[in-house]
Amino acid sequence: SVGVASLWLVVVTAVCTLPVGLAANWVVAGYDLSGNARMGLGAVVLAVFYVVLFARSVIADRLAATPLSWAGDLVLATVPNGGGDPVLAGGFAVASLAAVALAGLACVRLAEEVWYGDPAFLDDDDDAERALPAFGRPTLRAVCGPRTAALVAVTWRRTRRTPKVLFYVYPAAFVGVVMAEQLVVVGPFSPALYPAVVGLAGATAVGSGFTLNPLGTEGDALPALLSTGTGSVRFVRAKALAAAIPGGIVVLGLAVGLGASARVPALVLASALVYATAMVALAGLLSQALGVHYPPDHGGLLGGSVKVPDKSASALYSVGMLTVGMPGFAGVAQYALTGTLVVPVLVGGVAITVVVALGIAALSYRHAVSRLDAYSVE
Hints:
Blueprint: H1 2-30, H2 35-54, H3 56-63, H4 70-77, H5 86-116, H6 124-129, H7 138-144, H8 146-161, H9 169-185, H10 194-206, H11 222-227, H12 232-261, H13 266-291, H14 311-338, H15 343-373
Helix pairs in contact: 1-4, 1-5, 2-9, 4-5, 7-8, 8-12, 9-10, 10-12, 10-13, 10-14, 12-13, 12-15, 13-14, 13-15, 14-15
């Protein structure tokens, strides 16, 4: 029956994928990763899942020409007049039996390694070899000064060790994936909209990390940081640069790549890049202007002494980014919808967003600095 065939497919899928999970667990356990590192690794896996979900139609088309498609024949063969090929259905049944047997043996072997094997702990020399390279390189020091560069490097290192401060980055990035799917893959817009989607959602993700809670992400180091003469100006600037440098590279790189692959006209692509740059510049400063209103002891603690941003801060920040970004997004969307380049609409929409974004960024910078100047840990 159909139920039996469907149940067998569930069994095949579960048993054949279990060794992959056990193997991944064995590798992770062997490196004795911290809880924060495991959380970061889980976020990467989740991102891969979203990419596969987004590209499911393309993946399904590719798999249709492989023996995996015979699973459909197995199900259809159990339906009267279903049209399934009995030969292919039988071939899949035999092959799946062999695959389940081999996967079961692999599960037993890997389970012994995972549950009864001793993890390979590293000694001090290994830790030293795995230490992060110095981020305060001459180029960074030349751009923002040695003390600001040092703060940027510290922020990057702390984020790598405590990836939970990026808690709200992943939802913002996922919203971008959903926008791309619903507006372009399913909706009426052409791929020319991709650079604008990356500019809006990507920039929102850039500011959804540690800049949304600039005080709370310092943890136990906050009193020392505020009492060592670091200065609010340098602190705010370093946080913004720490988010904008890697985030801007990713956002602009994706925008260029997607725009080039979609053969977007030069003016549209250039406008989208200007739009994305302005949004990235706004992200790190607007998020700090909101984040400084949430003291380090506000909200829940997910472990250790470092806190994730508050939910309301994330919501207000997302609304602000969406409001500022709409004119430029609409300018690019007009071309992506009609295929007709109306220069005043495109340039005008992007110009409005750029001017407003830079103005709010300047005000946010001044507000965050003044708020930090008046802050006390007492």
